[in-house]
Write a structure and sequence with these properties.
Elements: H1 2-23, E1 29-33, E2 38-41, E3 47-52, H2 61-64, E4 69-72, E5 78-79, E6 81-84, E7 92-97, E8 119-124, E9 140-146, H3 149-190, H4 193-200, H5 204-232, H6 260-287
Helix pairs in contact: 4-5, 5-6
């Protein structure tokens, strides 16, 4: 009986040891940020974010993995680190460069800072353990290079110059167009056919006709310029509506006066005056026909 008990105990011990061996080394590193061999890593809050396939919490894994992470700088020296286990992200471990630790502990503020365009290396021990006691099995290394700060500054400055240059160009173009529109508007409003006829010695009709040609030429020029701008950019007008009929601008409450009505009235008056002169001349000719009988 005692012999059977010993045999049963031995079998149980073998099964337990076999089970432990079977489950050992199941912890797997799925991904890291930055990845191994990455370049352009930020020097602000320098560190590596690790994603494992098992639960990693500060209460269990944090206590067991105090010395499981080693971060070295460009000179190969070990750097101070802070290891964080985010509660809301299961299986995530964040290894950061500790910029608050006094390097030589002599009472002076000798803090470690990240260096631009330099290589850093994070070594993860194979003894790294998760909450369930599973280990990584073998050491893993992640090497990455920080961003070249000088080039980044130059690129940012170049982008700012291009942006401000574009803004200045657009602003100048808009200001020039506004000045041209204001000049044309002022010219149209100030035009007086009678004063212009008196100044040039031409008839009112000729002055009006010449002015209308000039206005039409300016409008064609403005339309061509607007068409050229529209060709550069594809406009999509989503606020286009149909109207039941065409209405004058005065119905919309505008009091803007273009001067065209006055020009049309002056032209009509000039034509009527010419017509009246021709009619009077014809009547005079008719009255003068024939000779008086003696």
């Amino acid at each position: 009986m005692k012999r059977a008990g010993k045999i049963l105990s031995l079998v149980t011990l073998i099964v337990v040891l076999s089970t432990s061996l079977c489950f050992a080394g199941e912890l797997t590193l799925k991904e890291s940020y930055p990845k191994d061999g990455a370049t352009g890593a930020s020097i602000e809050n320098l560190g590596v974010k690790l994603y494992f396939d098992s639960s990693m919490t500060a209460e269990k894994a944090g206590t067991a993995n105090v010395e499981a992470f080693t971060l070295t700088g460009p000179d190969g020296k070990e750097l101070p680190t802070r290891v964080l286990y985010p509660e809301k992200e299961e299986g995530v471990v964040l290894v950061l460069l500790d910029t608050t630790a006094d390097l030589d502990k002599d009472g002076k503020a000798d803090y470690q800072t990240a260096v631009s365009n330099s290589e850093y290396k994070l070594v993860i021990s194979g003894e790294l353990t998760d909450d369930n006691g599973n280990t990584l099995g073998q050491d893993q290394t992640i090497t990455f290079t920080t961003i070249n700060q000088q080039i980044a500054i130059m690129v940012n400055m170049l982008m700012m110059v291009v942006m401000f240059g574009g803004m200045m160009f657009i602003s100048t173009k808009q200001a020039k167009k506004a000045a041209q529109d204001a000049g044309r508007k002022q010219k149209d409003e100030a035009f007086n056919p009678y004063k212009e006829a008196k100044r040039t010695g031409k008839s009112v009709a000729e002055v009006i006709e010449q002015h209308e040609k000039e206005v039409a030429r300016q409008e064609r020029k403005a339309k061509r310029a607007a068409k050229d701008e529209d060709d550069d950019v594809e406009w999509i007008d989503v606020n286009t509506y149909r109207v039941a009929r065409k209405r004058p601008i005065s119905e919309g409450g505008s009091s803007y006066i273009t001067g065209r009505k006055a020009l049309a009235e002056a032209k009509a008056a000039e034509a009527a005056a010419r017509k009246a002169q021709k009619a009077a001349a014809k009547r005079n000719v008719k009255k003068g026909k024939g000779r008086k009988k003696k």
